[in-house]
Each structure stands twice: as structure tokens, then as C-alpha cells.
Description:
CATH topology: Aminopeptidase
Distance between the termini: 26 Å
Number of strands: 7
Structural class: alpha+beta
Shape: globular
Helix content: 25-40%
Number of helices: 5
CATH architecture: 3-Layer(aba) Sandwich
Radius of gyration: 16 Å
Amino acid sequence: MAKYEIRQFTRERLEEVRQRWRGIAGDDEFDIEFMSLFEWCETHIEPSEGDSQAWELYNTDTSGCDAIIDMVDSKKGTLSKLLKLFLSPVFWDVESKRDQVISLYIDAFVEVIKNGAIKGAQDVKLYGRNDLMLSLLRSIHAHWHVPGTTASFQGRFLTISLA
């Protein structure tokens, strides 16, 4: 069984994650770092044509939410895009959790690609929003050898063509 799954949020689950992350971060830090993210999530739980949606990166080992993913599907369903990935405050000490963070990003990318394939997308785009994400995407691109698919860069997007 995979360590991570992409799951749609429910209002109840979003509230559980909010309380868990607040407890880890502390009230002041949560308000500064995550309040606007969770406000956005509240309005992006349900799919809306042409608008991005908040998804949970669910950890099957801990039953926790290790990240929130901002993802959008095209109107025709032929394209999925990962726009942003927000890490849980558990990973704020990146130096001591570097390997876990890298593994999380890679697992998240794989889950987004699988999710796109399940939905019938022809292309899945992963955006290198920051230097770490872009570096990991470049590494994935360099080692991409999945039969029947291609990987190419379009600016900061790694595009995986599934058709």
C-alpha cells in the first residue's frame, strides 16, 4: 500500500486538519502562515469547472494530512495541473527532515500523475513553484522512463503526457 493518497476534503476533515496544524504550529504562527490557506480551502473543497481545488495528501501510515495540494483540471478533463503544495508544519525543520520532505514531494507528484490518469487526463503538469520543487521535477524528468508516456519541460512546468 502506498504511503500517500490524494483525497478530496470534506468540511469535517478540513476542520480536523486545521486544528491539528494549529496545534503543531501554535496559534500565532498558524494565523500568520496558514489562516489564509484554510480560508481558501473552505471555498475550494467542491470541484468547480475551471477553478482549482484543495486536496489532502493523506498519510496512510499516520492518518494525518502531510500537505494540502492546489490542483486544477481542465474543463474537458484532458489536463490536470498541480499548482501548489503546502507542507504541514510538522516539516518546518527542513534540515532535519530533508529526506522526508523530498520523499513527500515525489510521492505527491506520483499521486497527482496517477490521479490525472484515473480521470482520463492526457497531460499532467507539475509546477516548479519554488527551487526545491523545480529541482525535484528536473530529477524526475531526468529519470523518467515510463513506457507509453513522455516527460518534457514547458517553462517551470514538467508535463507528463499520458496519451
